Amino acid sequence: xxxxxxxxxxxxxxxxxxxxxxxxxxxxxxxxxxxxxxxxxxxxxxxxxxxxxxxxxxxxxxxxxxxxxxxxxxxxxxxxxxxxxxxxxxxxxxxxxxxxxxxxxxxxxxxxxxxxxxxxxxxxxxxxxxxxxxxxxxxxxxxxxxxxxxxxxxxxxxxxxxxxxxxxxxxxxxxxxxxxxxxxxxxxxxxxxxxxxxxxxxxxxxxxxxxxxxxxxxxxxxxxxxxxxxxxxxxxxxxxxxxxxxxxxxxxxxxxxxxxxxxxxxxxxxxxxxxxxxxxxxxxxxxxxxxxxxxxxxxxxxxxxxxxxxxxxxxxxxxxxxxxxxxxxxxxxxxxxxxxxxx
Length: 343
Ligand code: CP3
Prior knowledge:
Elements: H1 4-9, H2 30-36, H3 41-46, H4 48-62, E1 67-68, H5 75-79, E2 83-87, E3 91-95, H6 101-106, H7 112-115, H8 117-130, E4 136-141, H9 143-152, H10 160-168, H11 170-194, E5 198-203, H12 211-230, E6 236-240, H13 247-250, E7 257-259, H14 266-273, E8 278-283, H15 292-306, E9 311-316, H16 326-339
Parallel strand pairs: 1-4, 4-5, 5-6, 6-7, 7-8, 8-9
Antiparallel strand pairs: 2-3
Helix pairs in contact: 4-8, 9-10, 9-11, 10-11, 11-12, 15-16
The structure holds coproporphyrinogen III.
Residues 22-27, 36, 41, 68, 70, 72-74, 86, 91-92, 139, 155, 202, 204, 241, 319 line the site of coproporphyrinogen III (CP3).
């Protein structure tokens, strides 16, 4: 069994630096595109047989050291009572955004196993199909990032509705974060009970907050979720995109592993988190457009910098982009496996 990824999460000695990639399943793979020409995205997410198939594609094609459940962070918002659509142009659209106390009150706290059975069926099916080939990662959006989608009604540039609610209607904002935290805790715990061997909390938009506001409006909820989910015994990874300005606060999350985006040098990130940290990251996803030798140079640099942490899991600094050439992603994984061997 390849448990290198799980060992690295726990900060244990490994033979080589393990690698997986955020958004390793997706549109850059022709095999994924073939599947998507048959079914729409949400149907794919809700069909355990198809979702499991798409989860396994990058494991077979790239040879990564972990699989990540194919789903989306916005799926639980549907069973909280929101209408969710993915439009080709705009990305996710949530109708009737939550902007006040009444909106928060309408949201239901789901019972994950009861309301999202396909998630747990997919996890169980994947554990069977993976047969311990590589570990399976489950995931959820972190409450602040989920709150931005609920409040904005989709993606945003300025997050003006979110910050306005945060500042002008703090009680309603905190009430929303409470409901989301309860949901995320039970959702992740249920994923681990069903067979997920590690979980990642995606805080894609945490980096739009000032350090002061991150500490006040987001961090307490992240801490609470991580403390709760850790009781299940599986490692918890916390990834905040654009984390450089808030790393001092992120140090307090209690996560087993901290994901780092590409905007900060990995060595500097480790200095800020302390040498006891286990880190994940942080190649710029656009570095995959470079010639192979230059991808290798960047891999070596990141591997070398990763050595100063207690543990390092190689990843991109954010998700694989749809335009990425598959052969370059394969070359990346090979380079990590070649140059990441421990003497
Ligand atoms: O391979 C994996 O990483 C697992 C699957 C996964 C998806 N989304 C599939 C997906 C994961 C872990 C996510 C997380 C997710 N979803 C995040 C956090 C990570 C990040 O990228 O910051 C966020 C913010 C979302 C919300 C979301 N989902 C957006 C904004 C979009 C549209 C933009 C885009 O990238 O397409 C999605 C759609 C989505 N999620 C796709 C996939 C494969 C593309 C859907 C398609 O096939 O058309």
